[in-house]
Write a structure and sequence with these properties.
The chain has 119 residues and is mainly β. Helices cover 0% and strands 53% of the residues. The strands form 2 sheets. Strands 2, 4, 5, 6, 9, 10 and 11 form a 7-stranded mixed beta sheet that branches. It has a 4-stranded antiparallel beta sheet with strand order 1-3-8-7, with no helix packed on it.
Amino acid sequence: QVQLVESGGGLVQAGGSLRLSCVVSGRTSSSYSMAWFRQAPGKEREFIAGISRSGGSTTYADSVKGRFTISRDNPKNTVYLQMNSLKPEDTADYYCAARSLGGVKYGYWGQGTQVTVSS
């Protein structure tokens, strides 16, 4: 059973930075494409960044492009989300997700970590 555990959330002022981490256990993380999603209060969960199994390909939502960077360290079974130039509208619960090879949906999710950006 794959387990994902996020960490690194917290309170930061607008313009600041945070780095989220997601540790994958149960199977090697290189077996999965990984992504970060977020859900703000009263809003639907949204995709913000994804990375291929090798780390060679990344994709971002327009809302975070140029500010956030997704990366992975497969030997450490860890995926990161570096968030710079944070805005109050980035306030949300952030979730790590994994998708198996050939899978259509992200089938494994972490419990989330909260990010609050004050103005």
